[in-house]
C-alpha cells in the first residue's frame, strides 16, 4: 500500500475513516526524515533540534498522527542520518510495519537513500509506505518538479518506482506554474495526473487508485487547458493555449480601433502572449460558462510593488452581455487577493464611451489625460489613464475583501497561502516554511516565531494586545491580504 499526502495530516477526518482499517495500534513505524536541506541541518545537534525525542521542533508534528491511531510512542522509530548506518537501517526497515517519508526536498531524500544503499531494500519492502509532499513524490518511478523558490527549472527525477501509471502535482493551489507543469507533464509523458491539495490524499493499493479530499483527476490535455483560474456567475477565466492564437489574431482590428495599449502587429506577438514567453504579463481567456465559448481575453501586469496594469477585450459579437463588467470584477478581485497590488490602472481612448462606463462601474477614476499621445490610423489620439484602489474597488462592489473572517483565514493557510496583516501601521505575515512549520513574522520589527501547528499559532500570537482570533474574526485589522506562494 502506498499513501500519498501533502501534509502530515492523515489523522484528520478526510482520510482517517479509511486508513483506520489499515493502520492499528499494534503496528511499528519507521520515520525517515531525509528530505532536509543541508544548510538547515549540518550537525547532530541541529538534527536533535528537529527530531529529538519529544523535544524536536518536528518531532510532535510527525508523531501526532500515528499516536492518534493508537500506536505507542515507543513503537515509532527514527532513521538518524548521523547515527545510523546501512546495517542498522536495514534492520529498522525489516522490523517496521509502516515506513514514513517526511516532506521537504525530494531529490535530497533520494540522494540520501542511495548514500545508505537502501533503495533496493525499500523497493522490496512489503509493508505500508507513506509520505508527505517530497515523501509522496519519490514513491513514483519518475516525478516532476514544478519551478518554485527552491527549484528554478522544471525537471524529471528518479523515484523508488512503486507507481508508474500516473503522477501528482503536490500542494496544489491552482497557480499558473502548477497548471503549466501539469500540462507539460501530460504533453511529455501522456499519462494522467492528479492535483492534490493540502487536505487531499491518494491511496494506491494493488493497482487501484482511491482519492480522498481535495484531489482532482486530469485525463487529457483538453481538461488541463480548461482549468478554471477564477470563476464568476456567468464566466470563468482560464489560461490561454495554442488553440486561441488564431482567434485572438483575427480580433486584432478590434484592439487597433481602441487605445487599450495592447498593439498587435504580428502573429508572433500573439504566440508570445499565449505562451507567456516574456513571463511578465498574465493572459487569460474569458469563457462563457453556459456554452464554454471564448468571448474575449484579458491580461494584467504588475508594474511595481503596488500597481498593476490591465487590459480587457470582449469580442464584438459578445458585447452587450455584461461579460466585460463581470470579467473586470473577477480580474480585479483576483489581482487584489493574490498579489501585492493596491492600485490598478488602465489606459483608454477618450472617445471610448463603453469602456468608460464599465470602468466607472468597477470604481475606476480618471487620473490623467494625455493629449495627442498615441498615433493610430492617420491621427493622434488622446489617452486617458484610469485607476482604482483596492479599498475603493471593494467598497464600490460591496465586497470589502480586506475583511476576511477566521474560517477564510484558516482555509487560506491550509491551502499554503501567505497572509499579510496590517494593523496600526505595522505589517505582520504568516506563512509555511519548507519544513512545514508555521512562521509568524513581525516585519516592522524584523522578528519571527516558528510554530508546530495552527492551534499553537492561534494560542500564542498576539498583535498589539489582541489575540489573533479576535483580530481577524472581529475585523480589527486595517487590512488582511492573501498571497499565493509556491513552495
Which labels suit this protein?
single chain; 487 residues; alpha+beta; eight-stranded mixed beta sheet; 30% helix
Tell me about this structure:
- The protein has 487 residues and is of the alpha+beta class.
- The protein is 30% helix and 31% strand.
- The strands form 5 sheets. Strands 1, 2, 3, 4, 5, 8, 9 and 10 form an 8-stranded mixed β-sheet that branches. It has an 8-stranded mixed β-sheet with strand order 11-12-13-14-15-16-18-17. Strands 22-21-20-19-25 form a 5-stranded antiparallel β-sheet.
- The longest helix is centred in the C-terminal third of the chain and has 16 residues, at 323-338.
- The radius of gyration is 26 Å and the shape is globular.
- It starts with a strand and ends with a strand.
- 35% of the residues are buried.
Amino acid at each position: 500500500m502506498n499513501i500519498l499526502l501533502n501534509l502530515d495530516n492523515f489523522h484528520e477526518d478526510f482520510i482517517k475513516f479509511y486508513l483506520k482499517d489499515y493502520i492499528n495500534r499494534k503496528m511499528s513505524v519507521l520515520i525517515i526524515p531525509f528530505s532536509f536541506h543541508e544548510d538547515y541541518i549540518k550537525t547532530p545537534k541541529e538534527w536533535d533540534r528537529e527530531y529529538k525525542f519529544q523535544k524536536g521542533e518536528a518531532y510532535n508534528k510527525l508523531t501526532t498522527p500515528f499516536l492518534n491511531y493508537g500506536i505507542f510512542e515507543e513503537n515509532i522509530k527514527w532513521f538518524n542520518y548521523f547515527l545510523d548506518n546501512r546495517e542498522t537501517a536495514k534492520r529498522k526497515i525489516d522490523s517496521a510495519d509502516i515506513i514514513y517519508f517526511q516532506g521537504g526536498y525530494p531529490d535530497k531524500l533520494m540522494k540520501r537513500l542511495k548514500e545508505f544503499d537502501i533503495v533496493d531494500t525499500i523497493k522490496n519492502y512489503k509493508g505500508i509506505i507513506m509520505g508527505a509532499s517530497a515523501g509522496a513524490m519519490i514513491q513514483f518511478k519518475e516525478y516532476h518538479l514544478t519551478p518554485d523558490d527552491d527549484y528554478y527549472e522544471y525537471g524529471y527525477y528518479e523515484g523508488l518506482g512503486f507507481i508508474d501509471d500516473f503522477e501528482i502535482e503536490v500542494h496544489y493551489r491552482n497557480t499558473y506554474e502548477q497548471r503549466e507543469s501539469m500540462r507539460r507533464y501530460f504533453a511529455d509523458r501522456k499519462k494522467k495526473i492528479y492535483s492534490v491539495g493540502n487536505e487531499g490524499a491518494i491511496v494506491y493499493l494493488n493497482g487501484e487508485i482511491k482519492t480522498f479530499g481535495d484531489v482532482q483527476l486530469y485525463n487529457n490535455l483538453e481538461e488541463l487547458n480548461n482549468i478554471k483560474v477564477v470563476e464568476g456567475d456567468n464566466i470563468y477565466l482560464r489560461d490561454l493555449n495554442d488553440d486561441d492564437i488564431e482567434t485572438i489574431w483575427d480580433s486584432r482590428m478590434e484592439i487597433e480601433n481602441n487605445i487599450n495599449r495592447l498593439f498587435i502587429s504580428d502573429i508572433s506577438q500573439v504566440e508570445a502572449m499565449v505562451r507567456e514567453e516574456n513571463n511578465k504579463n498574465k493572459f487569460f481567456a474569458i469563457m462563457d460558462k453556459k456554452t464554454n465559448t471564448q468571448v474575449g481575453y484579458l491580461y494584467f501586469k504588475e508594474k511595481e510593488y503596488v500597481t498593476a496594469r490591465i487590459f480587457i477585450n470582449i469580442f464584438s459579437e459578445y458585447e452587450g452581455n455584461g461579460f466585460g463588467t463581470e470579467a473586470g470584477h473577477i480580474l480585479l478581485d483576483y489581482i487584489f487577493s493574490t498579489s501585492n497590488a493596491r492600485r490598478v490602472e488602465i489606459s483608454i481612448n477618450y472617445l471610448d464611451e463603453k469602456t468608460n462606463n464599465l470602468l466607472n462601474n468597477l470604481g475606476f477614476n480618471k487620473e490623467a489625460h494625455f493629449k495627442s499621445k498615441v498615433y493610430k490610423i492617420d491621427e493622434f489620439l488622446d489617452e486617458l489613464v484610469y485607476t482604482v484602489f483596492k479599498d475603493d474597488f471593494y467598497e464600490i462592489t460591496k465586497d470589502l475583501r480586506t475583511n476576511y473572517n477566521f474560517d477564510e483565514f484558516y482555509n487560506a493557510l491550509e491551502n499554503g497561502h501567505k497572509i499579510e496583516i496590517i494593523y496600526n501601521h505595522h505589517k505582520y505575515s504568516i506563512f509555511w516554511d519548507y519544513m512545514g512549520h508555521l512562521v509568524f513574522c513581525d516585519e516592522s520589527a524584523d522578528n519571527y516565531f516558528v510554530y508546530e501547528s495552527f492551534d499553537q499559532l492561534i494560542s500564542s500570537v498576539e498583535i498589539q494586545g489582541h489575540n489573533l482570533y479576535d483580530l481577524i474574526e472581529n475585523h480589527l485589522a486595517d487590512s488582511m491580504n492573501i498571497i499565493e506562494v509556491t513552495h
